Amino acid sequence: xxxxxxxxxxxxxxxxxxxxTCLGEKPFRARQVLRWIHQRFVTxxxxxxxxxxxxxxxxxxxxxxxxxxxxxxHCSADGTRKWLLRMHGNNCIETVFIPEEDRGTLCISSQVxxxxxxxxCATGKQGFNxxxxxxxxxxxxxxxxxxxxxxPKGERIITNVVMMGMGEPLANFNNVVTAMNLMxxxxxYGLSWxxxxxxxxxMVPAMDRLRAVCPVNLAVSLHAPTDKLRDELVPLNKKYPLxxxxxxxxxxxxxxxxxxxxxxxxxxxxxxxSLPHARALLRLLRGLPAKVNLIPFNPFSGxxxxxxxxxxxxxxxxxxxxxxxxxxxxxxxxxxxxxACGQLxxxxxxxTRRTMDRQRxxxxxxxSPLAS
Length: 372
Ligand code: SAH
Fold this sequence. Notes:
The protein is of the alpha/beta class. The chain contains 12 helices and 14 strands. The termini are far apart.
């Protein structure tokens, strides 16, 4: 039998306000319940002691707080942790925690699998099943926060969130935005927009919508400085080519000097890692407030690429630095437990039979108003 009760983990403050209004209650109930759920990790309404007894009973009848289930946890020698979570329908996704000296970052998934099929990414090779619900996205932060707790000074261990796990977050726009509203809300996680980063392969129209409704930090998976090469690595480029993508990035940071776009660039030996590639990248990014993150390619079973060697990566980085672009090489973390960038696979029950060719991929994505 399916449960007809509302899962309150699917609602941000606006959603909870509406929910309590329907129950004939005042909106401040939303704030109380947000605190119970997201700050105190209480899932049993009868323990919510600042709600009166009759409201607690009505909530027990009409609502639930239902989370994904942790089915495996792996800890890397470098402190990285990876959780395998079971979602409804027996699909599994992965969430990764990366501790660093000055922060703790949680890498969250937004979809079961991914439809974009970037040629160097393990997630894409698993196929695509479905979007995650809000409860399944924010549930990753809830579970990780509850597990990791606070440091001896009483500060939360998780200080930053990156929407960089499995899936393309902007292809699950509404649910991802609702979950990020909860991340930013002082009554739930209270993170500043600078500490919440969404990474996209370049869904141009959704980037503009994001800027309008939930302007978190933006990262863009660039990986190539020319359309010819990017078409090959990130097939979505055929839909939203570089000039459209870069214009969207300019619009995203326009009017706010604190903002810059982080460009991710996976280093693939002999494919995109030469000095001419670095110079083309400099030309492409000229005039845009930008940072570049070089990601040494992380191999996975069946991958055809090789990681660029350290000297090549250094040379590429130095060329970008000389050109005036802040560039860092992302440290590979958690690769001993397959938790590094691009290695997340989970268990995807593929309903699309992702053997879809790229032409079809392009045709199922919404059309760009900018594409000719
Ligand atoms: N779909 C979004 C979110 C994924 S973020 C996006 O494309 O941005 C994960 C990041 O890891 C992306 O920059 C992705 O391109 C990169 N990545 C994927 N596979 C990788 C691999 N095998 N090695 C290193 N980085 C990889």
